[in-house]
Amino acid sequence: MTPATAPKRDRALARGFAAAVALALYAGGLISLMQGIGVPVRAELAQARLERTFEQHLARNLAAAGTGAKTADHKRPDAPVPATPSHPGRLPPATQQAPAPVARLTVARLGIREIILSGDGSHEQLAQGPTLIRQGDADSPVTILAAHRDTHFLFIRDLRAGDVIALQSVTGPTDRYRVTHFETVRWNRFTYPLNPARPLLALTTCFPFGGTEYGGPWRRVAWAERID
Length: 228
Hints:
The protein is of the alpha+beta class. The chain has a single domain (1-75, 95-228), classed as Sortase (Sortase, Chain: A, Beta Barrel), CATH 2.40.260. The protein has two helices and eight strands.
């Protein structure tokens, strides 16, 4: 090999190496892009399946409630129908079993429909749908839902004060809430009132929207107050 050909060989190797790096970066970016596209697709597919399951459970629960009422009337025709106290959420209790649909959340102005799951709020579960983190009760009527910011709770970005959120339990009843305000807090500084004047609903997700850091410290919370 002559001294003149050595620089040519080195330049050729350098160009080949640069091309390989560029190809690797392109491939990596393409994979990341496809994964990013796949996340909302999987979320939509999961919600479609959960919507069918929710409708099946709702129909079964309503049918069972109707059958139970007829049976009770047949046994004791003169017995008054017991009053059921209305408490916030009226959702089935969350369990430690496999996540199951417990409610359907809708925001008419934004065309939003999301099936809410019971469970522990794990990453795998949040990939399917919003999770019931805390169920309000008569002693502390605050219901808290959580979901990912880039899929199921992306709509919080477009939510406004005054918007109405409907939360239908899989057992049938629907509660309506009006959005009152928003807050941005660190995850370990999030608090809620123990005894609010009216039942509350909190929707919480990671913040900022469109961020690339997952599991960051900030949370965006939409607060709503029950109106009926």
